[in-house]
Amino acid sequence: MSLWFANATFASDHCDLTRIAPTPSNTATLTPSSPSSLSILKGENVFLISCRLSENGVFTFNRHGFESALWMENNVKRHPIPAGDMAFVLQNTDGFISTAQITIQSSIEFIPRFTWHYENDYLTKAQRHSLIMGAFYGLGIALFTLSLVIGYKIGGHHLKRYSLYVFSLTAFFLLQEGQLFLFANERYTHLLNAAYLLSIGLTVFSATWFLSYFLFLHRDFSRVNNFIIAAAIIVFTLSALRTLIHQEVFWSTSGAIMGYCTLAIVALLFVFSIVQTYRGVPEAKFVMVALLFVLISMVFRILLHNYSPFMQRYGFILAFAVEVLVLAYALSKRISYISTEKERAERDASIDSLCGIANRRGLINSLPRFVNDTEFQPTIYAAFYIDIDDFKQINDCHGHAVGDSALVDVSRCLSNAMRSKDILCRLGGDEFIAIATFGTMSEVMNKHQQLKRTFKAVPFSVKGKKQYLSASVGCATFEHLPMSIDKLVAASDGSMYTEKVRRKSEQLTV
Asked: Per the confidence metrics, is the pTM higher than 0.90?
């Protein structure tokens, strides 16, 4: 199409846009930064644009939906400038009118939001947009990587679902804003458009899946949860079908269904986040705050899409940025709570419930750490094996309650005799073991003699009266501490039985 100039008497800068094929349209007069509602029809579209500008401008329209675009000016093909949207330079006409022809091939009917901007305004907005989106992409990539790595490291299903959601959301905005088109050949436009459609459905589904489980809807409101998940599956299915079906009726109908289904999902999740907050579900209040931002942005995007250009462009992005941050904080609180409960459960499972010292499991867990703390010191390891004499008689004569009380007294006596850094363990029944480190064999022998004196007469109470029990103490020393309880017991068991036999012989002699 030839470029031609004519005198003009327009009062202000403007562009006139007309579709001349396949079906002629009325001329739309575009003012700066105000998008046109003129649509692209299925097939080949030819538009005529006539502009009167006192300074350079940029003409833009949305990439998604068309297969190719050709800008001809003065019988010369003009290439688009690198940008997320399709963008072409409009030259300063010095009071005259310039005209160009745009040919767009599309497989569907859609509104591309034709807009022109003054060049300086466009550059300012582009820089601001790049800054906002760069920050969002950086946030998304960081949260995705962090949640995925930690999720697999600790086996956290919530983190894995969250990482899928953040990945989907970041991919959705990356494709929607068109940054990937800067690095892709025109041959891949169709694939990027298909990926964009799939990212819509995947974002809705992954967000619904993550939030419904995070709010425990599957546990507390199974029917509501099933309904929400089903709605998310419908959105994902329709987004996938839109990559294959390009009929105008299907696109308009499916688009409306997807929009209102997504709005209904967000609204329901918001309502039930309030319910779960009232019910005391941990971190539900944070989800409620996050969903409030998203719900407001969804209302502007679907119901009030012509109300505020800023909300239409950035409200959605900012709302989701706030949401992923709030959800990340809520998720960290949930993981911290789960980790604390897990540590408490492991600690409880490692402690003898009666005596309050380590059980066999606790001993096994403590041995490696005990060795690591002393591996660079000249150390002799000693295991003291304590077995209560004739404990069965205490249970038979006085009952198991008295026997349990006696075990507690023995444990307390052992704790008082050993250091805080030593390992104390009830192996089971009336058997105890203590693991300690010493610098010399003389120190080991002194401690062994001390324990034998201590357990020669351990007081315990029977119906308010003081009674005494005794225990035999065996000792074994190691240059390298075994990591097996059986080896520890076997090494000190012989010494203990020798002591037990000796003491019984002394009693018989007396």
From this structure: no
